[in-house]
Amino acid sequence: MTTAVNNRIRELIAHAYRAAPAITRILDAAGVHPSDIQSADDLVRLPVTSKDDLVRMHEADPPFGGFLAVEADTLPRIYISPGPIFDPQPVNPDATEGALAAFRSVGFGRGDRVLNTFTYHLVPAGMLVDEALRLCEATVIPSGPGNTDLQIQVMRALKVSGFVGQPSYLMTILDRCEEMGLTKDDVTIKKALFSAEPYTPAQQARFEGDYGMRTTSAYATADVGFIGFTRPGVQGFCILDSLYLEIVDPKTGELVPPGEPGEIVVTSFNTSYPLIRFGTGDLGALAAQ
After folding, report:
1. What angle (nearest 5°) sits at the alpha carbon of residue 100, between those of residues 269 and 217?
2. C-alpha 230 chain-centroid distance
3. Across residues 101-128, what is the average pLDDT?
4. What are the tens digits of pLDDT across the range 226-247?
5. Is 275 exposed, middle or buried (0-12, 13-18, 19+ CB in 10 A)?
6. Which residues, in sequence order, are bridge partners of residue 255?
């Protein structure tokens, strides 16, 4: 692991121990002092905090479980995950800049009009994508999910060039276009970013092969935000620099070798809301070197 990453982890742990009561409790219960965490390799000394753990900690220390390291009155937004878990969304330029790489990889920018079919309510997906598109200087059409015929009408009237949402929903839009007798030339969408579900090879073949789109799939969670995205010629997700990712044995929390499956565990470098060794509940594997 690079010196820069080790330095960031060491500084994160020291800061979170001082500023976030939940992190203080986690380290104390593990018998670990911040000075014991000097590198990424030392993170295994801390337990994995599961989604269920997060729910219990929020119930015991409402509303943010003791993880918030800034004044609550400074938060621009608060979202809600099942549990319920109240997800604070503090200003985090580091994560925002990292997420832009996914949007720029397919060329979103000035002149693009983009259908944002993610919901803006309760969960952060719609607003996070909206903000990233605006920072790329694209124009956002906050259409949300559903109303497929209206989405198609908007696409044609405004010559929409971009789409963000679930790949299955873009498939639905294209199926409906065909039912309406529209040709491929009538479909103006040429750039797309997907998330919230798997992006299958068959979908990619249709979007990129049949319709000539540039596409990417982003992996994100409500608690952490964007984690990674796909690039042409690269298998799997490219992980953002705004976090540190481990693959662990779900039962023991111990690291598994590259290439072997395990639970995706994330340590976020967001000093305002530091989640350290957060277990996403998702399964994955690190690419073998």
Report:
1. 95
2. 12
3. 95
4. 999 999 989 899 999 889 999 9
5. buried
6. 248
Whether residue 24 is predicted with pLDDT greater than 80 in this model: the reply is: yes
Per-residue DSSP letter, 72: G
Q: Does residue 79 register a pLDDT over 90? A: yes
| pTM flag (> 0.90) | yes
Nearest CA among 144, 142, 132 for reference residue 106: 132
Q: What span, in angstroms and rounded, lies between the C-alpha atoms of 32 and 46?
A: 8
Residues facing residue 246 across a β-bridge: 265
pLDDT per position as a tens digit, 218-227:
999 989 989 9
pLDDT value for 97? 73
- pLDDT (average), residues 153-182: 98
Beta bridge partners of 248: 255, 263
CB 167 within 8 A of CB 197: yes
Other Cβ atoms within 10 Å of 212 Cβ, number: 11
Cβ-based neighbours of 229, under 8 Å, separated by 6 or more:
101, 102, 105, 193, 216, 217, 218, 219, 237, 238, 240
- Asked if residues 167 and 103 have their Cβ atoms less than 8 Å apart, the reply is no
Query: What contacts 203, CB < 8 A, 6 or more positions away?
Result: 167, 168, 170, 171
